[in-house]
Amino acid sequence: MKTRRDFIKSTAYSTLGLSLLSQFGMLRAASPHKHFFDEPLNTELSKGLNRPRLDRLMKEEGMDAIIASSRNNIGYLTDMYMGMGDRFTAIQNYIIYEKGNDVISFTGELDWSLWQLLDADLDNVDVHLSDGAWYNSFHGDLTERDKKMIELMEREYSPGLDPGDTGALIAAIKEKDLGDAVVGVEDKMSMSALDAIRKEFPKIHIKNAHEVLVNTRSVKNNYELDLIKKATNISSIALDETHRSLKPGMTAGEIKELLSQNMKNRGSSETGVSADLGTYPCREKNYKLQKGDLVVLDAVNSFDRRYGDLAMSRVFEGKASDRLLNSFKALANGVQSCVDSTRPGITITDMCNSILKGVQEYYPGYSRSRNVFGHSLGVECPELPILTIGNETVLEPGMTLNPDILIYDYGLYMLLTENTIIVTEDGCELITPIEQSIYG
Description:
- This protein has 440 residues and is of the alpha+beta class.
- It folds into two domains: 4-218, Creatine Amidinohydrolase, Chain A, domain 1 (3-Layer(aba) Sandwich), CATH 3.40.350.10; 222-430, Creatinase/methionine aminopeptidase superfamily (Creatine Amidinohydrolase, Alpha-Beta Complex), CATH 3.90.230.10.
- 33% of the residues lie in helices and 20% in strands.
- The chain is built from twelve helices and 15 strands.
- The chain has a six-stranded mixed β-sheet.
- Strand 12 and strand 13 form a beta hairpin.
């Protein structure tokens, strides 16, 4: 008779599962019984979690617990980032956070995400596993890591749970005695999961936790702020290095590759870069850099799961026109006006209007399409709240905002500047200095 161990050892990933993991860079070795991740991810409460704020907001909304189901909110609560994000829901994992409780619950299927638990301290984690569609495959001699995986499966697997992605979640709700509690859920949770919970727990009261989670994440603690500053510093140095390394004849694609490499050399774990030879409309793809061209670089990077995002516009080895110089002064003045006005108590609309006023002092006809002037930073880029006229969110200390200011002069050029501002108790901190010269 086959044991549970024999079943696990003889079962392989589906072809679809392996191809998706490979596509998103989750396979780190040739066979599935090796490491899937470059480093173990913890399953305790994240150091970046603004827990006092979350507990307060939950209390105001009367919530006893929150079930996180999206990649970024699970990551924000625990530092466990499920590699597939929200694109595929063949396997769904959940985190249950109870107000004031040091213990969280991880629920999931017997799938690749378990590798993230192997090196974690599980003292503060309740693990509930249901019988999922994909299984880890063990072939040949077992490594110590393989044995640990099998031990974890056998210890935490709960026979009899429904094979769907809610079986383990329902078990965790029962264990935590939340069957008649007020529970917040994300608006991304599937209707099938909500229906299953309501069917199993007729007295449970479900509330939308989207605003609570957004509001919590909008104010960073010192741990998050430190990571965002490090990420921003990487972007700042890499942008400057790239501008100073430009050579005549380079294409926009080659400049982009250079910027990406400079980011990685500085410790960025994730890059999203763009390089434009600042005309509007843009030049043809194979255009080669010449002296006097405007070069616009934008660099997004992630340092330990927190984002930095900066942009710089500079003229390459030449002289800028008076019109371009005036537009550059308008951008710099817009950022300075924003810095001068940003403080706790004003709204995002106030902040955007200060940018608009500062730009218009040098560029009277300026208006930003859709009235969007940037975004926030955190575990996502962009992150809410968005900097837009009409957003009445009140600024609080710890908010990290990214004014993103563009000027298009059709047929001539496109200018972009992007800076990062942290709201402080009595004003704000500009993480990187405002570019004072279009020549660097």
